[in-house]
Write a structure and sequence with these properties.
four-stranded mixed beta sheet
Amino acid sequence: MNPVRVMRRVAAAAAVLALLGLGACASASRPEAMALAATPGLIAATGDVGYHSVTSVTVAGGSETNPLWVSAVSNADFQTALESSLDAAGYLGTSGPAMAVSANLVNLQQPMVGLDLSVTSTVRYSVTRDGTVVFDDTVAATGTATMGDAFAAVERLRLANEKSIHENIRQFIERFRAHVAH
């Protein structure tokens, strides 16, 4: 066999192994990066509908991250971020009439390649009180991570996931506040 061909095959095999190694770096989205801090204009006060009333939060539709593939958003991480955000906004608690929030991650649209990676999350939120639906809406939000945020594409994708869910939760709380104020 020709030594040049052997070297080309070795180089090709090394390149494939290197690419597989990069794929093994996918990491799960972090709840603390998806959660909102206390944000002026989104904080409930005594007397507001829902103030310290959310007693349960359930999340469905997420998926665990496969380290050999791409970053995802798990139900547990999304739930932690949503609970933390509702707490920071003054909704989590047992002082008012009990409310339940459910969030269904309908879609997490992720790009396959790119320099700037934009992820769009679509979540259907439902809020019930005494078995009656008081809020039901679907929120779509986009988060983008650039090469300036992270060089590795798997890290940019994780960051874009986190930014998308963060923005999705922000829009949910904003819409919920506007809806129940009427």
